[in-house]
């Protein structure tokens, strides 16, 4: 994962709308405790306002032991959040920016 995580970039000067992959932790430590994710969901709602204004594009994913587009699929597996599938997904999809919303109960190690 060395070199994968870096400061975000902006595309305003080129007129391009930046694409942001948002990863919401739905592992057992988050999905079983809704209070932990309330702020994350509020942040996503704020991002959606900017998306409606055409200022950015968001792809929302749910993470646990893998990366899912369906929240319920991620929550079924419970367990901890595994960072390797998230990093692999980022490399495969090549977004302009990434936001990972987690309670830090994961194997990030960096």
**Helix segment count?**
4
Uncertain segments are none
Global morphology: globular
In total, how many beta strands? Answer: 4
Strand order of the main beta sheet, please?
Answer: 3-2-1-4
Distance linking N and C termini? 9 Å
- The helix/strand order is EHHEEHHE
Helical fraction? 25-40%
Query: How can the largest sheet be summarized?
Result: 4 strands, mixed
Instruction: Please state the structural category.
Output: alpha/beta
Gyration radius, in Å = 14 Å
User: Which range does the strand content fall in?
Assistant: 15-25%
- State mean pLDDT (0 to 100 scale): 79
Please supply descriptive tags for the structure shown above.
110 residues, alpha/beta, four-stranded mixed beta sheet, 4 helices, globular
Please give a quick description of this structure.
The protein has 110 residues and is an alpha/beta fold. It contains four helices and four strands. A hairpin with a 3-residue loop joins strand 2 (57-63) and strand 3.
What would your notes on this structure say?
It is built from four helices and four strands, in the order E-H-H-E-E-H-H-E. It is α/β, with parallel strands linked by helices and 110 residues long. The chain has a four-stranded mixed sheet with strand order 3-2-1-4. It is globular.
Question: What is the topological layout?
Answer:
Blueprint: E1 19-25, H1 28-31, H2 34-52, E2 57-63, E3 67-68, H3 71-77, H4 83-93, E4 97-101
Parallel strand pairs: 1-2, 1-4
Antiparallel strand pairs: 2-3
